[in-house]
Amino acid sequence: MRTRFRNRACVAVVLTLLAGLPGCKPERPVGRIDEAPVQAKPEKTRDWVVASIGDRDITFGELQDVLDSLPVFARMRYQSLERRRDFLEAYVQYVILALAAESEGYGKDPVVLERLKGDLVDRFLQERVDLKVKTTDIPEEAVQAWFEGHPFEFKAPARKRVAQVLLKDRATADTIGFRIRKTIESLDQNHREEFGRFAARYSADPATKDKGGDLGLFPRLGDEPAGAPEVVVEAVATLSGLFEVSAPIEAPDGFHVLFISGMVSAIDETLDQARPRIVERLMAESRDRLRASLVADLSRRVAVRVNPDVAAAVAAEVQAEAAKPGALGSEAAPAAGGGVR
After folding, report:
1. Mind listing the domains of the chain with CATH numbers?
2. pTM score above 0.85
3. How far is CA 46 from CA 63, 143, 195, 318, in A?
């Protein structure tokens, strides 16, 4: 028969045991930071009842499992006896609220059920796929091949992010260019936003006007497309200051007023420096392949069938909604490339 702890002295004993759980001096994790090994307490100890809420018992083992599920750094916050007491009180309050919510039917709420489904999927994939992929599974040859096959990720010159306003005639370009330059010079902040407003209002380039005039990073690397007339590329090379605005640059498609919206530092990493990031990426690719294989296998077992006509109609409706002004994701994202300051 389980012993019920109802006095402060017994709870203190439990808290003392909790204080001895892993977390005070956790072993160094082998995999991800949230995979630190934990040690199980004897089953008899796990059955001890720490608190009761009506017919609901909270056992020592339950508290231990909750603590063990926390990431290492979260567990480190509960080292002292006093902090373990706080943890117990907070968990009791959590269970009280959970029982109250369940009694009022929140457990059947579609939003709650959908979140539960997401948690189930995450747990299922973590145990069936993610934990099976280890750093030791990534051969050195694969790391070397990735490093050599993606040279510009690890070695690249300093680059400038450039935006533009394209105007069709010299007079307009001179006028608008002067207004842009004076406006930018007068600002202490929000330079990119202000230039973007000029681009949205005046630029004749439909490909860039709705994304702040962004042309991407210069100089281009490898086989990246030029993205601008040669005379514009040459003009970019002469600009050096952050938030600098150029005079109008005449090109075959019109007059370009250029703006340095950001600077990206040069990259010069060795294989040893890049190895952790490469290994993590290769592990992610391996997890993705295993997940795809698992889903394909499960799909065959349950005979999944998709109605292509309905699927196409749904996709068209989603695309139409996303294209509406103000819709989330309707604005084009800036061109990719490095951390901009």
Report:
1. 8-107 (no CATH), 159-264 (3.10.50.40)
2. no
3. 9, 45, 63, 51
